[in-house]
Amino acid sequence: MAALAYNLGKREINHYFSVRSAKLLALVAVLLLAACHLASRRYRGNDSCEYLLSSGRFLGEKVWQPHSCMMHKYKISEAKNCLVDKHIAFIGDSRIRQLFYSFVKIINPQFKEEGNKHENIPFEDKIASVKVDFLWHPEVNGSMKQCIKVWTEDSVAKPHVIVAGAATWSIKIHNGSNEALSQYKMNITSIAPLLEKLAKTSDVYWVLQDPVYEDLLSENRKMITNEKIDAYNEAAVSILNSSTRNSKSNVKMFSVSKLIAQETIMESLDGLHLPESSRETSAMILMNVYCNKILKPVDGSCCQPRPPLTLMQKLAACFFTLSIVGYLIFYIIHRNAHRKNKPCTDLESGEEKKNIINTPVSPLEILLQSFCKLGLIMAYFYMCDRANLFMKENKFYTHSTFFIPIIYILVLGVFYNENTKETKVLNREQTDEWKGWMQLVILIYHISGASTFLPVYMHVRVLVAAYLFQTGYGHFSYFWIKGDFGIHRVCQVLFRLNFLVVVLCIVMDQPYQFYYFVPLVTVWFMVIYVTLALWPQIIQKKANGNCFWHFGLLLKLAFLLLCICFLAYSQGAFEKIFSLWPLSKCFELKGNVYEWWFRWRLDRYTYSIWASSCKNKAECNELHPSVSVVQILAFILIRNIPGCARSVYSTFFAWFGKISLELFICQYHIWLAADTRGILVLIPGNPMLNIIVSTFIFVCVAHEISQITNDLTQIIIPKDNSSLLKRLACIAAFFCGLLILSSIQDKSRH
Q1: From the CB of residue 215, how many other CB atoms can be counted at a distance below 10 Å?
Q2: Calpha distance 14→24 (Å, rounded)
Q3: How far is CA 44 from CA 38, 39, 273, 392, 557, in A?
Q4: Rounded to whole angstroms, how far apart are CA atoms 329 and 686?
Q5: For 118, phi and psi rounded to 5 degrees?
Q6: Is pLDDT of 612 > 50?
Q7: Residue 140: which H helix or E strand, with range?
Q8: What does the radius of gyration of the chain's CA atoms come to, in whole angstroms?
C-alpha cells in the first residue's frame, strides 16, 4: 500500500509539475530578479564602494561581509604592489592612530606600536617605495585646517590617500558642552572646502566616530557619551555632504567602522578604543577601497568596475544574437506555414480534412533553437558573474552549513528509490546514483567554504577521485566490451565533455584550465583510448579466446603506469610537454602549467584516498594518490555485495548523476560567484531563501544545458564518416581562429 501511494503521489506531482514547467518558472524568476536588481541599482546607486564604506555585517565573530560585494584579504606582497610610489596620510586622534597602525601592519606586520603617542608617526618602506604618515591632530581646529591647507597648494606634493577624523577630544576637553559642538561645526565648515578641493586629485575619507562602551570608560572620559558622538557625526555628515551645492561631495564618509564597533566595542579594554580585530577589519576595508580597482582581485568585487568586453566576448554576443534572431524568423515562417496547412472543414460533411502530415523537426531548427537557448543562458551567466547586476558575498564555513544540508539530501536520497533494471556490479543506475550523491556533496562543500576544514577537504578529494575512477572505468568497459575504437565515438565523448567549457571560456573570458575537472577527464579519456587502441588492440572477445591476450593487456597497463610515474615525479619533463604551443593555451593558468601538474598528479592513479595520518593539506596531498584505490574499491564492495543493495537505487541521486558534469561546471558562475570564490546573492537579506531560489535556477539551467549538449552532439557529430570529417575540419578551423584571437587579446592586454 505504501509503495502504491508513493507511485500515485509521484505521478500526480509529475502531472502538474514537470521539468519543463520548472524551467519556465526559473525563467520567470530570473527576469523578475533581474528587473528588481536593475531598479534597486538605479534607485540606490551602482557604486559598490559606497556599500563597502557604509554597510555590512559579521559572518561569525571576525569575518566582515560588506553589503552586496566581496572583500579581499590583502597579503603583504599584494599591498606593496598596490601602494608602490604612494603616500597615505592619516590625520586625527588616538582612534585614527589605531587605524594607521593596523593599515601599516598589512604592509609590514613587524611594525611596532611604540614611541610618543601624541606626536606624528612616520612609516616608509623604501624597497616598495610606500610612505604612510600619521599626523597628530586630535581636534578639528585651526591646526588641522593648516595641515590640510598646505596640501591644497599647487607646489606641494599631495598624499594619494587622506584619512581624517576627530571628535572625542573636543567632547572630553570641553566636558561635552554645546558650545564645543557649535565650534566643531564652524571648524569643520571651514575645512570642508579644502577637503573637497583635495578630493579632486586624491582619495579623501572622513572617519565618523565609533560608539563607546560607557560602562568601561574611566572617570575623565565619562562625558564621552554615544549621544554626544551621534551629534558630532550628524554635524560632520551634514556639513561635508553639503559642501558642494550642485553635485555629490567627493569626500567619502567612512561610516562602516561604526557598524563594526557596535558589534565589538564590548571587547574594548577601556571602552573608547576598539579591539585589534575590529581595527584590522577597518584597515582591510580601506585597502579594498583603494586597491581593488588597481589589482582587481577575483574575490574582491567591491569597488571594481565591470570588466570591458573582450573581442571574443563581442563576437560571441553577435553570434548568439544572430542565432536568436534566426530562430525567431525560422519559427515565424514555420508557424505561418503550419497555419496554411491546418486541417480545414468540409462545408458539406462538416468533417475536417488533413492537408499534410506533420513533418519532423529539421536539424537546422534544432541547431538554431539550441543556440538560441544557449545564448539566453550565457547572458544569465554573464549577468551573474561579470556584469555586477547581482550581488556577491564571501563564503563562511561552519559545521552546520555543511553537515545539515548533507543530512537533508541523504534523507531525500533514501526516500526516493526504485528497483534497478539489472543487478550487475556498477550497473548504469548505480553509477548515476554514485555520481549524483557525490556531486551534491561536492556542491555543498563548495558553497559552504568547507575546504578550510581539513577532514572535509580530504574526503571530498576522495569523491573527485572516485568520479575520475568512474569515468575511466566506464570508458575502459566500453572499449573492452564493444571494441569500438572508431573516430565517431571519440568525437562524441570529447564534444560532450568540452562543449560547455569551450563556450564558457569565450563568454566568461577564462582559460581552459580554470575548469580543471574537464581537462582531467578529457586527458584520462584520451589516455585510456590511446592505450587500448594502439596495436595490439585487445578486447574482451579476443581475450576470452586466448589467455595470452590478458597478459598482453597487463603489459600495456604496466607500461602506462610507468609513464604516469615518470611524469608524476618529473615535474620538469611534465611542464616542458604541456608548455609547448598550442598545448600551453589549454593547460596554462596564470602564465604557467603548475596548477595542471598539481591537479593531474593529485589523482594520477585513479585516484585518491582519505589520508587520516596527515596534519596539513600539503602532507595530505602527498599521501593522497598512493593508496587511493582502497577506499574506492571498499565502497564498491559495500554497495554491491548484498544482493538487496545491488537491486535498488536512489532515483533522486541518479537524476542528479545524469547532469553531474553540467552541475560541476555551471556552479562556477551561477551558484557560486567571483569564479567560485564567493556566493551568488539573488535575494539579499535572506540567506536561506536566496540559497533555495538560486539552487532551483542553477539546477534548471544545468539540466537544460545537458539537453542542449545532447541535441548538438547528434547534429555536429554525425555517424557518417565523410560528413564527420568535414565537420572536424570546420571545428579545427574554429579552434585555429580562437588561438589567433586569443593571441591578439593577449598582446592588447600587455
Answers
A1: 7
A2: 15
A3: 10, 8, 33, 17, 63
A4: 42
A5: -95, 50
A6: no
A7: none
A8: 32
Whether the CB-CB separation of 507 and 313 falls below 8 Å is answered with yes
**Percent of the chain residues topping a pLDDT of 90:** 62
Alpha helices in 386-453 (DSSP H): 399-415, 428-448
Distance CA 312, CA 307 (A): 14
Reading the block at residue 495, the C-alpha cell is: 564534444
Q: What is residue 597's predicted lDDT score, i.e. its pLDDT?
A: 76
User: Who has greater pLDDT, 671 or 557?
Assistant: 671
State how far the alpha carbon of 687 is from the alpha carbons of 27, 234, 404, 655, 690, in Å.
21, 32, 15, 26, 5
Of the chain, the end-to-end C-alpha distance in Å amounts to 70
Residue 127 pLDDT > 50:
yes
Pairing relationship of beta strands 352-353 and 86-92 according to DSSP bridges? unpaired
Q: Find cell 558575498 and name the residue.
A: 393
Distance CA 521, CA 502 (A): 15
CB-based burial label for 507 (10 Å; 0-12, 13-18, 19+): buried
CA distance 440 to 295: 34
Q: In what order do the strands lie in the sheet with 391-394?
A: 391-394, 678-681, 672-673
Nearest to 258 by CA among 97, 91, 121, 64: 64
Helices (H), 588-719: 594-602, 617-623, 629-640, 643-646, 651-657, 660-670, 687-716
Given a cut of 50, is residue 744 above it in pLDDT? Answer: yes
pLDDT at position 199 is 93
Task: Kindly list the catalytic residues.
Answer: 94, 270, 273
**Among the listed residues 470, 708, 737, 720, the one whose alpha carbon sits nearest the alpha carbon of residue 606:** 470
Residue with cell string 618602506: 125
Half-sphere exposure of 506 (CA within 13 A, CB side): 24
Per-residue cell: 342:
491546418
Question: How many CB atoms are located within 10 Å of the residue 24 CB?
Answer: 12
Q: What is the DSSP letter of 647?
A: T
CA atoms within 13 A on the CB side of 125: 24
Does the predicted TM-score (pTM) go above 0.70? yes
Question: Exposure string (b/e) for 155-176, b if CB count within 10 Å is 16 or more?
Answer: eeeebbbbbbbbbbbbbbebeb
* 3-class DSSP state of 83: helix
Q: What is the pLDDT of residue 707?
A: 97
Strand, coil or helix: 599:
helix
User: Which of 731, 748, 13, 26 lies closest to 376, judged by CA?
Assistant: 26
Is the bond into 405 cis (omega within 30 degrees of 0)?
no
Q: What is the pLDDT of residue 551?
A: 86
State residue 242's pLDDT score.
84
- The one-letter amino acid code at 348 reads E
